Each structure stands twice: as C-alpha cells, then as structure tokens.
Amino acid sequence: MNKNAPVSISVGRVAMIVVILVAVMGWNQFRAVADAGQTEKGWSELLRLADTLYDEAKLVIYQEQPYLAFEDISHFESLGRDLARQLELPAGHLKQSSDGRPSYDTRAPGYGGMVLMRLAALDDGQTSYLTIRWEGSLEEARLAQEWQERVTHAQPGEDHKAGWRINIQGGMNSTWKELADKEAVIEYIQEELKASRVDRYEDSGSLSVSLTSPLLQEYVLSGSDPIHAQAAVHRVTETGAWRLTLGSPMITTEY
Predict the structure, then answer these.
(1) What is the pLDDT at residue 172?
(2) 229, 244 in Cβ contact below 8 A?
(3) Exposed/middle/buried for 46, CB within 10 Å: 0-12, 13-18, 19+?
C-alpha cells in the first residue's frame, strides 16, 4: 500500500503492515450497531455490489473482542465449553502456549461454510479474548448472514456485541477482466457505495482506497475520518490475473 515500498515486499504484506500500524496508532475499534435492520442494510449493499464484480469469491466474516475475566485455567476452559455450546459447536481443545497462556479452539461446518471459535488469554493472564468466524463461498452469503444475526442476538448484553468485520476476495468477472482498468473498478465501487475517498495507495500492480459511505454502518476512525470500507485491486504476479478484495470496514487479509 505504500507506493515507496521496496519492490521485494509484496503488496499484500505491505497491506498487513499498514493494518498493524493503524491499529497501533489508534484507529478505534468498531462501533457496534444495535439495530439489526441497519446491519442487514449494510450487508445488502455489500452483497449487491459483490454480485456485479466477482465470478467467484471467498467470504470471511468475523467478530473479535475482549470477553470475560477468568480465575484459573479450569475457569477458562469452562468459559470455552460454554461458548462452544452456545454457538452449537462441538467441544473444543484447550492448549497452552510456551509462556503458559491458554487458548480454546473449536470449529465445525455450518450455515454453508466453516464456523470457528477461538478463546485466548490476554497478556494480563486474567482476561479472555474471543474471536468468532465464518468463512466460505460468497455464494453462501445469505446463510452466513443468518449465522451472523443468530450469533449477535445470542450474545449476552450490549457489552459483548462488537461490530463485524467482512472481507470478500476473488477473481473479477469477465466484464472487469476485459476492461483491465483498476482505476475504473475502484471508481465503480466508490460510485455504487456513494462514497468519498479518505486514502489512496497505488503502485504498478495494485490500487487500494479507504472509503467513507452513508450506505454502510460499521466504521473505524482514521483521525477524525470514518472509514466504512476499503477496496483493493491487485495483479497477481504469478498468473497476471486481477484480484479484488473488499473489506468493511477494513481489509484485514493480504490482497
């Protein structure tokens, strides 16, 4: 994403570095949207847009947030088991890292994709951190939305309802492949989301932008600017094919 980055660093790796730096510099955590209707509207806008851009693509949605405090490893494992049961997942596996911090992981097929849950201990040794994730084909987006709504409503209280991160990545459809114009793709996305650009990064093989849009509800802040979505078009070095990545409110994967 940094146009002055050395050629030896992949654009995708630069993207991840920028994401990490942004987090360190204080981009705010997601605003949680309490109104399910607003969340559904944001989903609809993204899915409508994706239908006009991709042949096929991978969809990932996930939520992560500090969860509950725990007293000891037995209590931590109990929290993990209870969460797995609540999410209709099988009992998971308790692991400990080399520094003694526990984690609890489970996964299972569900709602047209793969559902994953991870509970990890933070550095303080007392607070757990929860990640819930669905991943699968964009074709199963409606089932993924059903899963996301069920998980949101099942969570106990507003304190445990963080916003959702959505990433879509895949090859563009024939119309955009033939056009082979990354600027045109970005301009189309911006127009369809009625968005304005906050940031723009470009090199010879990629173009990425951060957008603010009145059609989307989840956002992070970059300074005083709300970021509702990011879009990146990248030419894959090995194949020469164009790959498009959409993220709301951020891209959190290599593109």
Answers:
(1) 92
(2) no
(3) buried
Angle between helices 36-51 and 182-192 (to 10 degrees): 150
CB 165 within 8 A of CB 61: yes
DSSP state for residue 30 in the 8-state scheme: P
Once rounded to an integer, what is the mean pLDDT over residues 157-167? Answer: 73
Pairing of the two strands 113-121 and 127-137: antiparallel
The owner of tokens 């090995």 is 238
Nearest to 229 by CA among 240, 242, 241, 215: 215
Structure tokens at 211: 């957008």
Calpha distance 228→9 (Å, rounded): 27
Please give the C-alpha separations between residue 48 and each of 86, 139, 188, 211, in angstroms, as whole numbers.
31, 12, 13, 17
